[in-house]
């Protein structure tokens, strides 16, 4: 039986709630990367998956009621080792965030090249999925031909 | 309790960014999500990661997405 005290205990557990948050990020990102048609939306979904993975790795090193992993003067070494957060995932996540931003920039550049070559951002039209094209034909065939891509260069023409 | 509010805001920004039709609004909502995740990193006892995430997730990634939207097309026509 769930009573009010156990619910308040769960809401005070930051580690468990952070794990649920990272799971929600990964689920929403997977939905966006798999089922959406726009390429920029797929890239945003991949960024959310990455953010969820970062949050998961960082949550594993969290200690409830602990201190940040900086050894300040006046601290006992035994007490610090028992009460500080684990600093190795923080160093790893710090690298992962920067690499993720660079990979997102490369993905966006490839999306811009695909838009310049095909004139659309729809993945089903670029990769030739006939079934999805026939299903979305009424909505996708309206806004074509508005390709004002003038200052990127003509490498692929 | 403030961690709970930040987590709910982060998940809400994530879902709204996926649901948007306008890609520029999706980019701005991605920035809101990144800022909330930066606060969450601060509450998870890692201020160095929070600093990096606040710069990268709240400023650099929305600017990259906005530039890509500006160079291609703004509406999601599917």
Treating each run of at least 4 consecutive H or I residues as one helix, how many helices of chain B?
Answer: 3
Beta-strand segment tally of chain B: 0
What oligomeric arrangement do these chains adopt?
A: heterodimer
Cα Rg of chain B:
13 Å
Largest interface: A-B, 59 and 44 residues
Helix content of chain A: 55-70%
Low-pLDDT segments, ≥5 res of chain A: 141-157
Number of helices of chain A: 8
Mean pLDDT over all positions of chain B: 90
**How do the SSEs of chain B run, as a string of H and E?**
HHH
Low-confidence stretches of chain B: none
Report the end-to-end length of chain B measured between terminal Cα atoms.
39 Å
The secondary structure category of chain A is mainly alpha
Largest sheet of chain B: none
* Domain unit count of chain B: 1
- What fraction of residues of chain B sit in β-strands? under 5%
The structural class of chain B is mainly alpha
As a percent range, the share of helical residues of chain B equals over 70%
| Name of the top-level CATH class of chain A | Mainly Alpha
| Average of per-residue pLDDT values of chain A | 82
Count of domains of chain A: 1
Written account of the structure:
The complex is a heterodimer of chains A (157) and B (78). In chain A, 67% of the residues lie in helices and 0% in strands. Chain A has helices at residues 4-12, 14-35, 39-60, 77-83, 88-118, 123-126, 130-135, 137-140. In chain A, helix 3 runs antiparallel to helix 5 (88-118). The longest helix of chain A is centred in the middle third of the chain and has 31 residues, at 88-118. Chain A starts with a helix and ends in a 17-residue tail after the last helix. Residues 141-157 of chain A have low confidence and may be disordered. With 78 residues, chain B is mainly alpha-helical. Chain B has one domain (2-71). Chain B has helices spanning 2-19, 23-43, 47-71. Chain B starts with a helix and ends in a 7-residue tail after the last helix. Chains A and B meet through helix 2, helix 3 and helix 5 of A and helix 1, helix 2 and helix 3 of B.
